[in-house]
Design brief:
2 domains, six-stranded parallel sheet, 17 strands, 25% strand, globular, binds NADPH dihydro-nicotinamide-adenine-dinucleotide phosphate, binds ligand LTNE7NMQ, EC 1.1.1.3, NADP binding
Length: 414
């Protein structure tokens, strides 16, 4: 699509859809107008003329006057049907739906290849921060070793509100919802699943590794215990929800979403409220840091707007890293991680045999108990105790790294 005057078929007129309408009115750079809007609720009052709205998706998908479909609804299954049909109908698509993308990425990549129709989704990872296009284009020839970031705005907003402003978890979550940062189902945010969906996208554009969300370990912020919070505070560290993907020296990628202790000297420690931040480490450029708003109407709409503009000059993702790194795999059993595990009593205590090394143990009937230790990433993902009520796992400040076997460790210590 290379026209400069574009007509949009918009699905969804919620936080981001209305944000897009507002930014289109104000941008000096793109001549685009919304031709039709599909929504769901027939009883909702709308701020635009009624004749612009429809409740039938075919009114948009079959309309030859609409140049591009912008998909901004909060239902991933329905979004998949819409996006697939739009591509098959030859309509370029812009979407912000990370859940839909993460669940169907291999098929959507194939569909773009087979139809020759572009699908852009800058808003789906880190909202206003242009991470996807930078990873895809700017870093197309550099050797990316890792990406590590705060990629969910709501959870960062909640953690900031609790730790800096003294709000309760419940109040902070309610405020994140009210401000339009949270997903319609906020469990996606607080359980780390939204961050995991974004990690799927980052893996594809950083390393060319197309994984399913269920292949990645995700632990959210919903079970961070008072003891873990106190531990972090005593050490002068912040707890942040961090998505990380790292190339291991022997090949393979370690990737996970985990609440993480972050030192004051780390770039991510200064990422507050609904902001996101991403640190890239690469062979030539070395370390770089991206910061910006990770949720909200205008920041997210700004990324959708940029994708619309990109479509007008014929831009599409080439998935260059997939071509370069066709054989890269996730290697959770080749990686290890240092963790703090807090638990309420012996009934939910972690199995020490799962750990390569246990560093520290603390037991208190009043305060709760904890241990710190090193554990294989695959082992942690499989551990039954991880999902038990009253158990909280937080990554210590060290990054994911290649696993050292016990004999190697003994040799190194001798
Ligand atoms: N909010 C944010 O900060 C960000 C959101 N996103 C993503 O953007 C998308 C939209 O989020 P957001 O705007 O916050 O969501 P909202 O809940 O604010 O709005 C959702 C919209 O989708 C419409 N809708 C739901 N189902 C259908 C359907 N089957 N057909 C047509 N319309 C439908 C709703 O219609 P109705 O108005 O009739 O209820 C509503 O207008 C989601 O995928 C989200 O994950 C991405 C980055 C940031
Ligand atoms: N719920 C998401 C919205 C943006 O992707 C978040 O909080 O990051």
């Amino acid at each position: 699509m290379t026209r400069t005057n574009i007509t949009i078929g918009l699905f969804g007129f919620g936080v981001v859809g209305q944000g897009l309408h507002a930014v289109l009115e104000r941008t000096p750079g793109l001549r685009a107008r919304i031709g039709r809007i599909a929504v769901k609720d027939r009883n909702k009052a709308r701020t635009l003329p009624t004749e612009l709205f429809t409740f039938d998706k075919q009114d948009l998908l079959d309309d030859p006057d609409l140049d591009v479909i912008v998909e901004l609804i909060d239902n991933a299954d329905e979004a998949y049907v819409i996006v697939k049909q739009a591509l098959l109908n030859g309509k370029a698509v812009v979407t912000a739906n990370k859940k839909m993308l993460a669940e169907h990425l291999p098929e959507l990549i194939e569909l773009q290849k087979n139809t020759g129709v572009p699908l852009l989704y800058e808003a789906a990872a880190c909202a206003s921060i242009p991470v996807i296009r930078n990873l895809e284009e700017y870093y197309d020839t550099d050797l990316l070793d890792s990406v590590e970031g705060i990629v969910n705005g709501s959870t960062n907003y909640i953690l900031t509100a609790m730790n800096r402003d003294g709000q309760t978890y419940g109040d902070a979550l309610a405020k994140a919802q009210k401000l339009g940062f949270a997903e319609s189902n906020p469990a996606l945010d607080v359980e780390g699943l939204d961050a995991r969906n974004k990690l799927v996208l980052l893996l594809a554009h950083t390393f060319g590794l197309v994984a399913g969300p269920e292949d990645l370990l995700a632990v959210g912020i919903d079970r961070i215990s008072p003891l873990a919070t106190a531990y972090a505070r005593e050490q002068g560290l912040a707890i942040k929800l961090v998505a990380e993907a790292r190339r291991l020296p022997e090949g393979g990628i370690a990737a996970a979403v985990l609440p993480t202790l972050v030192a004051p000297s780390h770039e991510l420690s200064n990422v507050h409220d609904e902001f996101n931040g991403l640190v890239t480490q690469s062979g030539f450029a070395d370390r770089q840091f991206f910061l910006g708003r990770g949720a909200g109407a205008f920041p997210t709409a700004s990324a959708v707007l940029s994708d619309l503009s990109a479509l007008t000059y014929g831009y599409r993702y080439e998935y260059k890293k997939i071509q370069q790194n066709a054989h890269l795999n996730l290697a959770p059993d080749a990686a290890e991680v240092d963790v703090l595990v807090t638990f309420t009593d012996e009934a939910n205590a972690p199995d020490e045999a799962d750990f390569t090394v246990v560093h520290e143990q603390f037991r208190s009937a009043q305060r709760g108990s904890y241990l710190t230790g090193t554990i294989g990433l695959g082992q942690l993902a499989r551990a039954a105790w991880l999902r038990q009520a009253g158990v909280c796992v937080v990554r210590l400040a060290a990054p994911l790294r290649a696993a050292v076997s016990v004999p190697e460790l003994a040799e190194a210590e001798a």
